[in-house]
């Protein structure tokens, strides 16, 4: 599965509504921060508690990731199906319930993808991991013989590399920080096609997991170095390690 296919999965979560039928729901919310109290936590916890009473074996790690905006598509399928199976949410209300109570942020999306590739374990980072830490782990675990994980030539950029809004000194250049996974590259036009989760609406109703494209406009070589995208964004492009650890 490529990163753009992961976005499509978030848009088409299968929810079991009966023994013979499923509905689909789309995860369209960009969710950040810790959420372990308040109405959305109460709504998710009502599902988890009802599932425990019915001996449906809720995955507590999935619910924990939901509290932090780190859900994978599998987590969403699990939580939404339990919501229907327990009777807490009616099948026809599942999309509105998902809109209110489930979401994923940019690092949650990236971790879900690299977990799917088998190079990171999302259970290790249920509470989140920052972009600088992901870059640090890439530096620590990448092969020194390759010249390190930071890429400075468009010709070197490949599918599954990731973009972080940072400069080489480790300072984040966007608040909050951001990460996107590259799923295709047009080397002739200098266009990077990305999959990510973002708070901005993509025009089709998706605020959360979405597809985007950005144009390589050069390398700022003076210290601290960075790559410029779209004549404005200051970023690093990073080769993920064989294992993040």
Summarize this entry quickly:
This protein has 245 residues and is an alpha+beta fold. The chain is built from seven helices and nine strands, in the order αββααααααβββββββ.
Percent range for helical residues?
A: 25-40%
**Number of strand elements:** 9
Q: What pattern of helices and strands is seen along the backbone? A: HEEHHHHHHEEEEEEE
Low-confidence stretches: none
Q: Could you describe the largest sheet, including whether it forms a barrel?
A: 6 strands, antiparallel, barrel
| Structural class based on helices, strands and sheet pairing | alpha+beta
Radius of gyration: 19 Å
β-strand percent reads 15-25%
Instruction: Tell me the strand order in the biggest sheet.
Output: 4-5-6-7-8-9
3D architecture notes:
This protein has 245 residues and is α+β, with helices and mostly antiparallel strands. It has 2 domains: 3-106, no CATH class; 129-238, no CATH class. It is built from 7 helices and 9 strands, in the order H-E-E-H-H-H-H-H-H-E-E-E-E-E-E-E. The strands form 2 sheets. Strands 4-5-6-7-8-9 form a 6-stranded antiparallel beta barrel. A two-stranded antiparallel ribbon has the order 1-2. A hairpin with a 5-residue loop joins strand 7 and strand 8 (226-229). Helix 3 (60-68) crosses helix 4. The model has no long low-confidence stretch (mean pLDDT 93).
